[in-house]
Specification:
The chain has 230 residues and is an alpha/beta fold. The chain contains six helices and nine strands; from the N terminus they run H-H-E-H-E-E-E-E-H-E-H-E-H-E-E.
């Protein structure tokens, strides 16, 4: 699962620099894999360049629990851009987790289009998905974020949320999405956030940072928690 301390973006002279040292798209998956498996508690720096001329008005370095839980409780359909059929890739087990939590997830991967991943048909692009999408989950290299956001903003109806995975973020793309009325999450993983806010992450001995005297929300199935409305 996730580290007890949430990843923060590097400030100061780190802005505007590309901090990714691995090949494009693979470095962020390695960090995500470490976070999900509990192997380490990485201090995650975003891998994109940040626009200083057009920035989101929202603080994307820290999110209120109510903001994240509100998103995860409201969205039903998720398009995962960059979903992989390889069962050792983080995108695969994030897809599996979200499906198990009742989300309707549509894999998007042009190299796998027309084939199934975990019983779900894969599409080449967002506009090929045959029903409205509530949330776009971006599992691609940072350079792909702006065109994916542009594609998402061309959908009708618009998605409610654009979510960028660990190490991903783009202030200019976020500002553009928010100006269109779309919520944005950057440098977070929905699987990790769901486990943290539901309390499931505590089963691995990880501090969720959430204190509550209320009973957890039980879902159907074996040891499955939901997220309480905040």
């Amino acid at each position: 699962m996730c580290p007890s301390s949430l990843p923060k973006r590097h400030e100061g002279n780190q802005r505007g620099k590309n901090t990714q040292t691995a090949s494009a798209g693979r470095g962020n998956e390695e960090i995500c894999l470490q976070a999900h498996s509990g192997l380490s508690s990485p201090s995650v720096a975003l891998t994109d360049s940040h626009s200083l001329s057009q920035k989101s008005a929202m603080n994307h370095d820290a999110y209120d629990n109510a903001y994240i839980s509100g998103i995860l409780n409201s969205v039903k359909t998720v398009a995962m851009v960059g979903a992989s059929a390889n069962d050792v890739r983080p995108s695969f087990f994030v897809l599996k987790y979200l499906l198990n939590k009742g989300f309707s997830v549509f894999p998007v991967n042009p190299g796998h289009a027309g084939k199934e991943i975990l019983g779900r048909m894969t599409y080449a692009k967002l506009s090929d998905i045959p029903e409205p999408i509530d949330m776009i989950d971006i599992f691609r290299a940072s350079a792909a974020v702006p065109p994916i956001v542009d594609e998402a903003l061309g959908l009708d109806p618009l998605p409610k949320v654009i979510w960028m995975q660990l190490t991903l973020g783009n202030d200019e793309a976020a500002a553009k999405a928010e100006a269109a009325g779309v919520k944005v999450v950057m440098n977070r993983c929905p699987k990790i956030e769901y486990g943290r806010l539901s309390g499931e992450i505590g089963w691995n001995g990880v501090n969720s940072g959430v204190l509550s005297s209320k009973k957890p929300v039980m879902r159907s199935g074996f040891q499955s928690f939901g997220i309480r409305e905040r």
